[in-house]
Amino acid sequence: MAGSHSGQSKLIATLPDPVLSARLEAVRMLADQLPEPVAVIDRDCTVIYTNRPACSGGPGAVPGETPVKCYAAFFRRSDPCPFCPVQQVFDTCEPRSVTCPSHRGENASGRIQAFPLMTADGTAEYVLEILKPRGEASSGEALTADPLDGGSAASLSNETRLGGLIGRSPAMRQLFEMIRLVADSQATVLLQGESGTGKELVARTIHNLSHRKDQPFGIVDCGSLPETLLESELFGHVKGAFTGALYAKKGLLEAADGGTIFLDEIADTSAHFQSKLLRFLQEGEIKPVGSNRSVKVNVRVISATNKDLMELIKAKAFREDLYYRLAVLPLLLSPLRDRREDIPLLVQHFVERSCKRHRKPIRVVEPDAMQALAEAPWPGNIRELEHMVERVVVTAPGPQLTRQDFFGSSQVVSPIAADADLRAVARRAAQTAERACIEEALRQAAGKKARAARTLKISRAGLYNKLRAYKIE
Fold first, then answer.
1. What are all long-range contacts of 356-364, with beta carbons under 8 Å and residues at least 24 apart?
2. Same domain membership, residue 244 and residue 227
3. First to last CA, the chain
């Protein structure tokens, strides 16, 4: 395979979709640091990009020079595969672990981890392929194991954890793969998700898996500080820069030189601050408040928000050029209600940790209590679940944690009394309405789940979870 990165850069420059361009640029920046062969293909199986390990003749960006089909480049086939498993990724917009046969009926390059690269409207335009050597189990396959199948504690921990993150749902498996992929790059990462979904923990995990792990990890809560204090906290200030500046102060960016800075609630910043942050991201230099001297710093920026930045851009409340600087590697964190299969793992983890912290004997959560926890709405996501578990561990009298310990007597009353509970009535009404909306969206989308998920404005993983929960065929 022949080609050059300049060819691929030209392809990115001509793409009309800025989100897709940013994602392809992120792939280009990351892929050559990986030992595994990496390729990007379009729906016609044409290879539009390969990294160095995937090429026989040096770094490769195939398009524009000699178009090559993936089945010919990687599997030594002269004709397309009878059934292309990667096409399912285009259709479902979900990551998959697949096997592609060679012309001899064996997998020439082993398993493939396939990830959709989507446009701003959620359409899978390309697929990123990470080719695994034959005999190497993919992490996606390992994570599908049932943690209750009697496996060893060590294997369970390895299969369901990444740093401090815990989960075995499809959404968490995809997040684990993306964190491993982006951790050692230099590119900025934007974490988007509701409050309580663990954005700070994801940022810390990315830092700890990177080559910067031995350097500082700084945290700035952009939503809790006034503009002047926020600038001073991040960029530093000189003596006399403003009232109360009695001495010079080094900013967190300079203090974290060589490490990572985490900017939480980035959507709550002012236009002036956004302008200064953009300049730093472009130039790699900071200028302390009240100073004319620029300081060169090497810091990786990870930002987070629980708001829709695209809507803020339309409302002229957030700079579009800053968004694309921050979202070179965008990661979406699913709410807890969209990955309920993770709740038992999280509950067990929080129970063990709380018992140890408060010097309590190990408690056991009863099955009906665990079922109720798995079905609860959790508007506060993981943070709400953690706080409830800790409260119950401290206050429950016995070794068994019951449903009543978690939810009180209102959750264990008879069916007749439950009908009088307005919260239960409202919950059932909401579930009925939600089911009707899902069925209507599927009908309008002619059964296409990816299209229905876009109509409902939820993730595809979230839609699949709801289909299972409501037993919708």
1. 357/390, 358/390, 358/393, 358/394, 360/393, 360/394, 361/399, 362/399, 363/393, 363/396, 363/399, 363/400, 363/401, 364/399, 364/400, 364/401
2. yes
3. 44
How many domains are there within the chain? 4
Q: How many CB atoms lie within 10 A of CB 282?
A: 11
Q: Which residue do the tokens 């439950």 mark?
A: 418
Residue 18 near residue 121, CB atoms below 8 Å: no
Map tokens 């990667």 to a residue: 86
Count of other CB atoms within 10 angstroms of residue 35: 9
Which ranges constitute the DSSP H helices of 110-221? 139-142, 153-160, 170-182, 199-209
The DSSP element (H or E) to which 427 belongs, if any, is helix 422-444
SS3 percent helix, strand, coil of the chain, rounded to 5, is 45, 15, 40
d(CA 269, CA 277): 10
Q: Is residue 166 part of a domain?
A: no
DSSP alpha helix (H) spans, 315-414: 320-326, 343-357, 367-375, 381-395, 403-407
Identify the pLDDT of residue 50.
Answer: 85
* 170 and 143 Cβ atoms separated by less than 8 Å: no
Residues 6 or more apart in contact with residue 211 via CB below 8 angstroms = 184
* Predicted model pTM: 0.58
98-136 residue pLDDT tens:
666 554 444 344 567 788 888 877 788 888 888 765 444
Q: Find the DSSP H helices in 192-314.
A: 199-209, 227-235, 252-255, 271-283, 309-314
Nearest to 148 by CA among 370, 390, 333: 370
Using one digit for the tens of pLDDT, what is the confidence trace for 16-53? 677 777 778 778 777 777 777 888 888 888 888 888 88
pLDDT digits (tens, 9 = 90+) for 239-254: 777 776 677 788 889 8
Quote the CA–CA distance of 284 and 86 in Å, as a whole number.
Answer: 39
Nearest to 193 by CA among 124, 264, 273: 264
Pseudo-torsion of CA 29, 329, 267, 234, nearest 10°? -50
Nearest C-alpha neighbor of 162 from the set 121, 216, 125, 207: 207
Rounded Cα–Cα distance for residues 360 and 399 (Å) = 9
Range of the domain at 461: 422-469
Question: Same domain, yes or no, for 200 and 302?
Answer: yes
Strands 295-296 and 364-365: unpaired
Strand-pair category, 300-305 with 295-296:
unpaired
Give the mean pLDDT of 375-404. 91
Q: 434 and 462 in contact (C-beta within 8 Å)?
A: no
Residue 160 lies in a domain: no
Are residue 373 and residue 320 in the same domain, yes or no? no
d(C-alpha 229, C-alpha 155), whole Å: 47
- My answer on whether 291 and 219 are in the same domain is yes
